Amino acid sequence: MRKIIMNLAMSLDGFIANEDGSYEWIKGYEDDSLNTKNQYNYETLLEDIDIVVMGKRCYEQDMHLEFKTKTVYVATHAPITAYDNIKFCGSDIIEVIQKEQQKAGKDIMLFGGGQLINTFLKADCIDEYIIGLIPIVLGAGRPLFYDNHPPIELKLEEYIVDNGIVILRYVNR
After folding, report:
1. Residues linked to residue 72 through DSSP beta bridges, in sequence order
2. 159 CB-side CA count, 13 A
3. Cα(65)–Cα(62) distance, rounded to whole angstroms?
């Protein structure tokens, strides 16, 4: 069965964007002295993905343009007509993606944001969590994790250090 993979970067205090939605702070620094031998390759991850799921805010910031060769599902309650590779989905996003998960194909990536991730957390249907910890404390912003989801036990499968960014890959037990 296809995996649902969450792939996001967050500040050390748990934010995925500033309060205004900006994310220019998502970067490392010019010191590779602590880099691990294995390195993260986003392009390799994308080769194994054929569906990307994002929230409406990500869509409004044109983040879908990065995924022209993928089917992109946008979670929104707004009545927007599908076009090209973009599909819009309301309150049944979990059901739609779980049906896609049953079909033949590559894995499915949850791209953001926090409210979308929270919906999938509550359904406990994320198979893999890839989180890049960015060396910054923002103090405020849009959180990755919200309250009111069940505890989910994860197993650390891999860690990577790349110019100050720590990338953690967990699997759902």
Report:
1. 52, 86
2. 9
3. 6
CA dihedral 61, 62, 64, 67 (to 10 degrees): -130
Nearest by Cα to 159 from 129, 136, 138, 139: 129
* Three-state secondary structure call for residue 56: helix
CA dihedral 63, 38, 108, 57 (to 10 degrees): -20
Statement: the pTM of the whole predicted model exceeds 0.85: yes
CA distance 36 to 169: 14
The pairing of beta strand 128-134 with beta strand 165-172: antiparallel
Cis peptide before 113 (omega within 30 of 0): yes
Chain mean position to CA 70: 15
The Cα 81–Cα 147 span in angstroms is 32
Structure tokens at 20: 């205004």
How do residues 1-55 score in pLDDT, each as one tens digit? 899 999 999 999 999 999 998 999 999 999 999 999 999 999 999 999 999 999 9
